[in-house]
Amino acid sequence: MSWLSRLAERQIQKARLQGQLRNLEGEGKPLPDRPGDVYVSPGDAAGFRIMAQAGVLPEEIVLKKHVAAQRALLAGLTDETARKASMAELARLEMLQAIAEESRRKFLR
Is 2 helix (H, G, I), strand (E, B) or coil? Predict the structure, then answer.
């Protein structure tokens, strides 16, 4: 067991002994079925779930949406100058998305 796992277990045990884990939403109910979590590491899945419950999106997801919107915009452009500018913006957004994804991977190692 890693030091991080031991620390997490200690904190959970401390909270349980202090009664901080009583009367939580969903207590006593089965865990919800999340088949999409099969393809994501348990740590990522938990983090994404916490952020979703807080109404926050990870930076890489926001950038992914911007990339999709930029691709749709580019598909509708016919002017060559506008297409070049749109392609440059698409490349910038894709680079930012790749950086965000790589940063998360490195952080979680």
Answer: coil
